[in-house]
Hints:
By secondary structure, the protein is mostly helical. It has helices at about 1-35, 40-45, 50-55, 60-85, 90-105, 110-120, 125-150, 170-180, 190-205. It has 9 helices and no strands.
Amino acid sequence: MAEQTTHIRRRRKAARPGEIVAAGMAEFAEKGFAAARLDDIARRAGVVKGTLYLYFDSKEALFKEAVRAQVLPSIAGLESLAAGFEGPTEALIEAVIRELYAEMVEGDARAILRILVAEGARFPEIIDFYYEEVVSVAERILLSLLERGVARGEFRGGPILDAQLVVIGPAIAAAIWRLTFEHARPLDLDAYCKAHLDVMLAGLRKTPA
């Protein structure tokens, strides 16, 4: 019985960092970065504040880990999709864009975007962190897809290769719209995404000689 109790305690301790991160993400999403308090995060996670400091030395460190837990699995999924895809690049880009809509525009990652837009000027370190760990990786993935299409003779080259974020600009606009104007004019995301893909792919396709 004592051995079983010890095993349960070990499992509980191993799960604790993840529980704290989940509680932190919930608190940040609800209150924002500045207003979130470590005491409230600890309470939400069911631990004392001192336990929280065993794993994270600051609110910023906890926020960064919450972002990693929320966003990086999706980024890794996009990298895996791009690496293993053998079909036309147009179909690959469509799959990537639809996944971005699911995560960034409709998913829980919207809470992170709201914090970055509302509080980034006050906390530039979280902007720098997000760029380095998320945005720069997304840029690299997009560039690799565009270069793939050009190399296969499917896409034209040109300025797009130096400004690949143009490809996802409408998705970013949709995410910001939903954070600000959704109550006044709800966005039909399915129709919007289709229009985004239609305009973007028409601009990327190589014009027949």
